[in-house]
Amino acid sequence: MVTIPAESRKSAHIRLTLNAEPVEVSFVPYKTLLEVLREDLGHTGTKHGCELGECGACAVLVDDKPVLSCLLLALECDGRNVLTVEGLASNGMLHPLQEAFANLGAAQCGYCTPAILVTAKALLDENPSPTRDQIRQALSGNLCRCTGYLQIFEAVEEAVMKIAEQKKISGRAV
Amino acid sequence: MMRLPLFDFRTPRTIKEAALILDSEGSSAMPLAGGTDLLANMKRRQQVPRTLMSLRHIQDLNDIRWDSSVARFGACVTLASLANDCRLRSGFAALSQAASQVATPPIRNMATLGGNLCLDTRCNYYDQNYEWRKAINFCLKKDGDTCWVAPGSSKCMAVSSTDTGPALIVLGARVRLVSRSGEREISVADLYNNDGMNYIKRRPDEILAEVIVDSLGGWRSTYWKLRRRGSFDFPVLSVAAAIRSDSQGKVGEARIVVGSAASQPLVAAEAENFLKGRSLGSETIAEAATLAARIAKPLDNTDFDMSWRKKVAAGFVTCALRELRGDDVRAERESITRCAFPNRLLELQ
Amino acid sequence: MAESEKPSNPTADCRNACQDDLRVIGVPRRRVDARAKVTGQTRFADDVTFPRMAYCKLLRSPHAHARIRKIDTSRALAYPGVYLVLTGKDVPIEYGILPVSQDEQALCVDHVRHVGDPLAAVIAREELTAFEALDLIDVEYEILPPICDPEDALANPEPRIHAYGEEGNIHKRVSLAFGEVEQGFAEADEVFEDIFFYQGNTHLPIEQHAAVAIKDPDGKLTIWSSTQTPHYLHRALAKVLEMPPAHIRVIATPNGGGFGGKSDPFQHEIVVAKAALLLDRPVKICLTREEVFYCHRGRHPVLMKFKTGVKNDGTITGIHLQTLIDGGAYGSYGVASTFYTGALQTTTYHVPRYRFEGCRTFTNKPPCGPKRGHGTVQPRFGQEVQLDKIAEKLSLDPALLRLRIVESSDTVTANFLRLGTVNLAECIRRVVERSGWNEKFRKLPEGRGVGLACSAYLTGAGLPIYWNKMPHSGVQLKLDRGGGVTVFCGSSEIGQGSDDVLASIVAEILGLDTFDIRIYTGDTDLGPVDLGSYSSRVTLMAGNAAIQAAERARDLLSTAVAERWTVPKERLRFADKHVFDSAAPEKSVTFAEAVSLAEARLGTIGTVGSYTPPESPAHYKGGGVGPSPTYSYSAAVVEVVVNPLTGWLNIPTIWIAHDIGRALNPELARGQVIGSVYMGLGEALMEEQKFRRLPKKLSHALVHKFPSMLEYKSPTSLDMPDVVVDLIEEPDPRGPYGAKEVGQGPLLPIMPAVANAVYDAVGVRIDEVPVTPEKIVKALAEKKAGRFPRFGPSHFPQIEWPEPLRVPPPWEGGDGNAVNKPARQKKPPTQRENVLTS
User: Closest approach of chain A CAs to the CA of B23, in angstroms?
Assistant: First the structure.
């Protein structure tokens, strides 16, 4: 079990774009993106429930796709674009998904929420008007023990409408 | 939080460079593709490679190439890109369905075709944390000397749990394995051994570089996966089937593979032969299903009772063959996959 | 788009609105802590970090049952990066959640009782180092044969898992008789006897338990932990660390799901506290998922025997219930759980005579404890499935049968539970109507069916866990001259929305917006004691305490404003952040001005409120479990589609009606109902805490079959049916604004409704939870073979029950006291000594 004595552990270093900001970070090389985000970059919004890919609580977007940060070596993230829950709001405004989740009871304990929010964002970026079935599918890698999912689906649908309205308004403005 | 053990990290840029690394490091090095299987196993200390060799930077491994007569899938193509590729919907349906049912959406964004083919065999006694395995004094597959599934057995009974393996076998696919000393192609049907430990014929110094499928003109294929939940779970039974009809509309050639019922995907040769030259009447399908199900020998090392897994195998093959015959089996599929968008399920009934 | 939390301005419309209208209560609202949750800013225990923080890992027993002969930690201590290694002798004092079962040690000293029982701890600079060093601790064990299940425990008094309890490996035996049940059976037209089994399962909060402890700058201890019960943790820490409670501060961080699984004081909490004190540096632990399975405290596996007498019209003449309970390796809440398996049978339907016998055994598995519906879920399954059988035998519609026999409001039951409002009949009528029950029941095609079941649940345990006469919940309010209101309460937010309950009540009474209220909860230094987030007690108890504190504050403000205006203070109204004269609505001051006036007149403004439940009429021994200020009621209809060949089960829709009294925040209340349905569905279909005993000839191992999120099956978004929720709102005067509980009750009817629906669909009885395809197929095979179409347990073992405590029910003149004093069987002391020296 004991692999290499602790004193021989070296440090690794990567640059990445985190929530639209360039960052550099040094870390012990065995760490996954999850650990580096939480422990070395102070971004504790990303959670963990198993660290084995069995719950989905650690999902983040890497290059716009939802992936599990617990099974991605931070070493593999050099030069990549990472979005976490901390990067969803912009200019002091919550993302419509965040608004809808907050208003419609889609977050109970809130622990699986960050991963579900970024996963839903990836879905809406790709498919601005998903059906209930498509939402179910897209979120089928995120376990939630509190809500029974239904209010999460409703919140995603609410956000879909809000985003569409916003687009209409901004379209008219142009 | 579970932590990975320490490792050296290598990032070759070409297959050749990767082959050199594997050659020099021996079996203590392991290729890292999507990481969804290997890193979890490392956290549980089931696999503790001294060196991890990332395949991410080898561009050749990430391509899908379509020639007129062959399709070539780089080993690092993700399961999500296979699942989303419209070109796979017809003849390659089995592959598309298999890829789209692996684990969960975020895992499919990471996991690769090569990784799923090389997926370590699974077992309830093996896929456990170090501490748990210590509590059973380990098992034959790792650090122990007893196979707890079959304590008298000298062979490890861990289960082949790849979804794409059975699908690719019925598509007649082969893989290209590259090592320092050269390369070879073997069919996916020949890639596996019925041995939970020594389950794959890829040598430690070889890189599984590519999956090659010859033209599938005239073939229809499908993949059925049984598991408890609509996502996350590995198959506890799977059936891949492909059929090419002859000019009279009878079965010209049939391929049926039963997955997750042994340490390797099982080719149902008897059923395949039986179908040849017959039309897919209900009795024929029932007989073929019985023949195919007979080879499934599930053991008590996955989810569900083994006797139930055995019992439902014939029904599962039936569904696959009925689908290939052209029956509307959406209700059955959605019920089983739990993508049973509930209201639709009722409509269909 | 602007965030919808910006303050609103009072308008003329508001001023003219009816002053008694509720403006906050009952309005679907964004919960107060929602923004933190959707921005990832909620600070869970593992999000708490400090400079110089060290990591702790626990060495856990690989043996189900063993004596510790020797522990040598020297190699681990010498490992580079390791700061400290602790063993049992560093924290030997026994503790436990219940005063009657102080049977746990933070690190086992000489006896490990299940795989995963911790016996040593390593604290190191890095978590990986601590993990690696665990393997360097050398332990010599003397392996003992494991006790695998209750029947094993009954058959094998030795080796004893604990030196206390009834005898051998029996932890607790209870026997209660409310009237002569045999007479009830004699009067019955039909007597039904059924045996049911309910498999154990676990909470599986997505957040793994975590704790961080520091030695304060002033030398005291502070611990942040994902606990539902900071007060009980506070007490346990004081006991084990031998420190004055005043020197310990427990901060319950918001829990990433609790469901009862974080209600005990845990070993890891005590260990990091001890380590932080010794090292004088912050120490963190976050359990792995496997370790969470070892903490467990989940649903007890229960074997039950129900004997029920009924008249031909469905009237129940008597129930005799026996339960055999697999407790696991420690007491935990087990004594209470044992009583709970027999407590609530009388709360839904009128039961004139009732006899209950329960037996909890110790086994070498992680300890069971309270999970959502604590102890009442298992017998509710049995009772509701048996009622379905009774209805069929009597040729009655199961809904009609239940409507005939539902208990009425303000009743005192046979076992002296005083019920509050009972709107179960309305719940039944609502789900019958909504689901189209009358068109579906026994009318759907083969393979499809509907099932109905009902339940009741406590709105808060009527008694505290340790005997005392103090309030169960306290709330303190601080009013600031700037208009700010701060609520301090010991309650812990586990996702259920308890902070929102406090904010909404205070906002309602003081005429504010919930966003104006600051909430400090779960901190033993800041807030008055609240006993914790368990037994669905917080809305009612902390809510009532908040009402008292807020009304007192309103009174102080009214006094000052009324004096200034020289009007009677009864005329003042608080709304829209203003205080109005109801007789002259144009006359108003802002809330902040009102506070300033009060502060000038009366000094600093702060108030307190507290709540103590009413005394229970149950005065007999054991009567402490079951009483509650009031009870919630639920009825559910489940529709199933069963494949008759494979037993494969799909559930398209569930209809549920819940008698909530009043929904303080309907959005959250609905979420609690759906969440309960979800968890119930997981239990009904797939969740199992299963164990494996390796072949005895080859191994002593008794291990959790699959302590992982992958193999412990929690339903995914694809497995969740549509749920139609109806909240039945008739305010109960005992609850704040009439509110009753909603977090647990709606779980209870789901499992029996599923089993009943399977019977309607394919005509087989699955008298066991979970209801799996395998079991359906086996029962279908029985049916096909012409045998009884059933899957379930066939026998209930012989248990030597003690003489029952006889308590005549109210209608037989009983006063809640027992009329006899059964002799307690004492075992010769030699057996105990045996255990300690063997």
Answer: 22
